[in-house]
Amino acid sequence: MAKILVVDDERAIRNTLKEILEFEGYSVELAEDGKQALEKVGKEQYDLIYSDVKMPGMDGIEFLEEIRKIERSAVGPSQSDYKTTNVVGSCPVVMISGHGNIETAVEAIKKGAYDFIEKPLDLNRLLVATRNALENKNLSQELGKKDEEIKTLKKQAGKQVQMVGSSKSLARVREIIDKVAPTEARVLITGANGTGKEVVARMIHAGSGRAGQTLVEVNCAAIPSELIESELFGHMKGSFTGAVKDRAGKFEQADGGTLFLDEIGDMSLDAQTKVLRALQESEICRVGSDKTIKVNVRVLAATNKDLAAEIAAGRFREDLYHRLNVIPIHVPALDERKEDIPELVEYFCEQICGEQGVKVKTFEAAAVKALQERNWPGNIRELRNVVERLIILGGNTISVEDVNLYA
Q: From 3.60.15.10, 1.10.8.60, 3.40.190.150, 3.40.50.300, which CATH number describes the 334-406 domain?
């Protein structure tokens, strides 16, 4: 059970927060000012702290600074009058204030606050902030917040997704990925079906500073137009038939990580409008609610459509296109890089034989050449299917006759 400390000089607010959070299953302790809160922090370990900004004596910003000093001193000899032996890692602190403004919020974040919420407190905003802060703390503990461990995770993630081939066109794609991945820039990935656009998206995420966070993928073409808004932004209970409970959307699920909008050219204009607002304001609104929720998401998008033609036809918003198309990456069709087919055949053969639990088969040079001479309208996906078919139906060594018969 997560332990939460609520610090506020107003008894009514303290008690209200305690009641709400305990109803959600959390253990809650109270402090009426910064000094009393520091005494508690010196004796107990908390998973999350809510602190008012304006308090007599030590205000919330000063309390936040002291908390961070205690945590820094915990790694060496104590430089504080308070005990630090129970302090492990950085406890998320969410600031709350009835006198909120941009300057105060920015100052709090700069000094180490996890989030900032204005009074009067919105129940949904409070619960989302609580969940996100606790999930973030748990993830930080799992990763240990050690740079070397994070780098190792990135390398491992990068090995799980790869683009196979040595062609010049593919080398250019890799070069762009290497440059854009560490940034926060939005990327629009174009190319025909089956070329590997989703692989490009995963490589960008794996090479980014968000690699330790979630990559959420959404196939916009596979979701009915009447449900796409709920899928992306979530909904409130009773907002439409079948909405039996509150549900977080993909933007919320990807908070802190990456959201990959695949086949965005198939998204409805209404949903496009809301996505544009989410990109502009970094906030979303669930279906059936008028409350906004702040999100920190890097958006990658992909399409097999000519968006310029879609814009001209009135099916895609030009302003959204420019928001998404900061860095364009075009993934070449397989027919444009047939020199990669031998490497792809070898890669798929080893992969598929491993999945089937059979001895790795070999392909005759003539068989590979025959595959290179074919056209591949289905691109990489079609080639993999053909290789799998040949492995299952062909002999121990795949011959040109096998290709002519089964491919």
A: 1.10.8.60
